[in-house]
Amino acid sequence: MGAPIAGRLLAAGHQLTVWNRTAARTDPLAAAGARVAATPADAVRDADLVITMLTDSTALDAVLFAPAGAAEALPPGSCLVEMSTIGPTAVAALRDRLPSGVTLVDAPVSGGVGAAANGKLVILAGGDPELVSRVAPVLAELGEVRRCGPSGSGAALKLVLNTATVTGFAALADALTVADAVKIDRDTALAALATGALGGVVQRAGPGGAFTIALAGKDLDLALAELGDLAAPVAQAAADRLRGVADPTADVAALTQKELP
Predict the structure, then answer these.
(1) Long-range contacts, 131-136 (Cβ 8 Å, 24+)
(2) What's the CA gap between 49 and 210, in Å, rounded?
(3) pLDDT tens-digit readout, 243-254
(4) How far is it, in rounded angstroms, from Cα 21 to Cα 27?
(5) Which domains does the chain have, with CATH numbers?
(6) Which residues contact 65 (CB under 8 A, 6 or more apart)?
(7) In the prediction, which pLDDT does 208 show?
(8) DSSP-derived secondary structure letter, 236
(9) What pLDDT shows up at residue 230?
(10) pLDDT reported for residue 185
(11) Which of 117, 135, 162, 210 could potentially form a cystine with 219 if both were Cys, beta carbons 3.0 to 4.6 Å apart?
(12) What's the pTM value of the predicted model, to 2 decimals?
């Protein structure tokens, strides 16, 4: 996801410095005009706005706070826009660890790699309204900026959306299992389901998805961890089902296959 986001910003004319844990992934961006940094700290030294897009809070912590991490080099007055899906608790912890004078907007996204490349993401922005307004023109290059409320609210809404998406795939899988049992062929079932409440999930179940079982499970676990004394049995069942899939790199749509990967 980070590469198409960087590509959009380059195409819009922004000066961009990039860093990736897998250095070869920056080659196309370098060819398009980005400067490639040797370390996260080097990437942010002269930046007004810094964007992080990583797999989880562990990776984010390493990029920001490990030796040569970005946090130590963030300039006073700069803004960190955190676009990973890490949940509101991790956002609050991150805000408390940033150097004095560095501000934070949590801005996870809704939409896949294709939406990122085409500037069609929905950016779920949480933070002080003036701060969100400051970064909104840059984020608007990536899609629609949706203001969600105070710091952490973008991260929180992302968990709501991903809970609906993943449990929707589990529900679709069960519906297709019933179709098999009552001898309705899957194409007929999917055509009918596409006109109902699961229509968006049916559309998303086509080829080309990039929301892996591992990421879906991580996001559901984040949501479940926020529940406290509340119960979400459907989400829990979906999380248990994801843990039973042998290939965590498969797309979440694999839940709807007769034989899981």
Answers:
(1) 131/79, 131/103, 131/105, 132/105, 134/79, 135/49, 135/79, 135/81, 135/105, 135/107
(2) 27
(3) 989 999 999 999
(4) 13
(5) 2-150 (3.40.50.720), 156-256 (1.10.1040.10)
(6) 71, 97
(7) 65
(8) H
(9) 97
(10) 95
(11) 162
(12) 0.93
Q: Which two tokens stand for residue 164?
A: 């609906």
**pLDDT, tens digit, for every residue of 189-204?**
999 999 999 999 999 8
8 Å CB contact between 70 and 40:
yes
| pLDDT of amino acid 81 | 98
Tell me, what amino acid is at 182? V
* The two three-digit tokens of residue 45, written as one number: 């030294």
Nearest C-alpha neighbor of 205 from the set 238, 176, 242, 236:
176
For 223, what's the count of Cα atoms within 13 Å in the CB-facing half-sphere? Answer: 25
Give phi and psi for 241, each to the nearest 5.
-65, -40
Where do the H-state alpha helices sit in 17-152?
Answer: 27-31, 40-44, 57-65, 88-97, 113-117, 129-139
What size, in residues, is the chain? 261
